[in-house]
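Summary for the funding panel

The consortium committed to producing paired sequence-structure records for every protein in the target list. Below we show the first two records in order, beginning with the earlier of the two.
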Amino acid sequence: MTEAVLKAGGFGFLAAGYRTPVDVAADISMLRELTDAAFGLNIFVPDTEVRPAALASYLAEIAGEAGRHGVSLGEPHYDDDSFAAKVELAIAERVPVISFTFGCPAAALVRRLHEAGSEVWVTVTEPGEAQDAAQAGADAVIAQGVEAGGHRGGFTDGDDRQDYGLLVLLQLLTEQVDLPLVATGGISTGAAVAAVLCAGAAAAQLGTAFLRCPESGTSSLHRAALAEPGRTRITRAFTGRSARGIENRFLLEHSASAPMAYPQIHHVTAPLRAAGRAAGDRDVLNLWAGQGHRLAAELPAAELVAALGRDIATALDAAGRRAGGLTGR
């Protein structure tokens, strides 16, 4: 996927989350054998606050789900996703861009990455996080609207968090931080990319839009759900951290009681999700998707990038004509 996007003229990222440092190193090596284009690497920032208090009742609640699929729930352990080792790998490999999700690296770490020649991008979901990223020395912020699929990328996950739609967030950040903004959340078409560029973003980041591409590795169950009508909702039921996915039975039945306990619940439900995929039961899968998932096209990634480019130009031209009509020019 990353190779296809890079060769088509987009800026592709490798994912470090849930992968071992050895696997990430192999991915970097393989990508560099395939292309000499600059690329990015996304790293999860660990949550150092462990919240085990509500785990026991949730484990008891979902035990029957595992029993029905003939598996045992996973061990609810905490880990930091090998954060330090992955950062050291990124520095040693001099990866051009490092993006961080779930938090902001310390200023000293940002300086080390800069010394290695890397830019640092930080995912934010509200203005205060963007200000913290700017103070730490980030080169850009990824502004994630609440429309986005998958995990909320903000620094905290409390129920008192303020969620912003993407266009509102971009307007607030444009006023409050002097950094390039990368817009993400609910963007699936060239017209949507054009819209966020007009709203002040320097670039758009698309996720759900690529999930039906053959290179994505999306399971057939997930791919089918993306193409069908379906509401999305934010839930902690699958991982213990807020994430947007397509509604299914597990999400609807267990979201209300799922505690804030990441990555413990991720490890707990992993065997159940794997069994669901093997059995063809998408009612126990985390069907991550943004609100606009029905707009995702079933195209090879390179064709999708090319189509987006054409549609961006068309949308900007049309918007210019409409604006001219409104102003009488």
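The next record, for a separate protein in the list, is shown here:
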Amino acid sequence: MSDGADRLRVAFVVDSLVVGGAERVVEALVTGLQHEGFEVVVGCLRGPGPIGEALRARGVRVDEGLATRRADPLQIPAVIRWLRGVGAEVAFVLDHSNALFFGRVAARFAGIPAVVGVHRTRRADGSPSLGRIDRLLEPWTAAVVAVSHGHAEYLAQFEGVDRSRLRVVYNGVDVDRFAASAEPGSRAPARGRLGLPKAAVVFAVVAALRPEKNHESLLGALAAPELAAVHLAVVGDGARRDALRVRAAELGVDTRVHWLGWRNDVEQVLAAADGLVLPSHPNVETFPMCVLEAMAAARAVVATRVGSLDEMVEEGRTGWLVPPGDAAALRAALVEAASTPRERQRRGEAGRAHVIENFTEARMVAGVAAVLREAVRG
């Protein structure tokens, strides 16, 4: 086995790499760890998903169908064989529930350490992010990677994770990807490509159309007379799509809401926007990548103070933070952001500098690489 100085082979164990914040982090880690000298393979318990297919197209080994039935112990040998067959020296297990089960049990019997990456704070229904079986398997876990200090404290205090196993690695973004979006002249051409009004103030919201993202409160704020000239660019899709469209029509704001669906060019949407807004409820939201992306594009952020947003957004310097569920506070922040273009620009520029200093993809990859090497040495 490698002592950490040579090339390590790390096996990512996931359920399916659908389009989501945690899965996009995995995509960045797989690519970045290769540049750090790791050999990387990916094992999907079910299908590869769009991100898995994209990794395959870039030459990464992505295997699928390792364990298609959730928590079925009879499938454990197949995952063990896969880990041994690919020569894994350490497993990185994403916090998909069945991956937490299969990944750690298989790693234990394959004789390699397992590092768990947790990206959520509770589930959408408010239940703990780690189930009872997940907590029972903690002794078979070399380290648990939290995405912020607040997240680590939550995992220790409310989910019972042993503090000695917790490691904090901030999520990060590729700031170069958003450099062009940060240029002052990027708005007009980007709006032309997306069909957005040239002169209006446009806020983007980048989030799955699910209840916990609380798009309803944003649509309600948009109906306020003070925001009558503001438009909204909605990136994402999900179960609430039709209901949200109906609600926008009921509020009379449907002509000012632009439904853009899922996109793989969020940098273009941010280039077209004057700022980002994220009105989420406390459940689930932990360290949303869209906020880092907006700041990397030099766009000010209006968001609810949920998860670890206060470790990302500096109130008064890089954006506006409001209490979750406070419709009046959200509306007031949007009014201030919409009516003060120089202040938006100042906070946006400060946000890009904040990301460059603290939240780059390179820093994230280096942090996870250090945790993996520590796990192998241990």
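Regarding this second record: Residues 27 and 54 are 9 Å apart (CA to CA). The chain has two domains: 9-172+360-377, 175-358.
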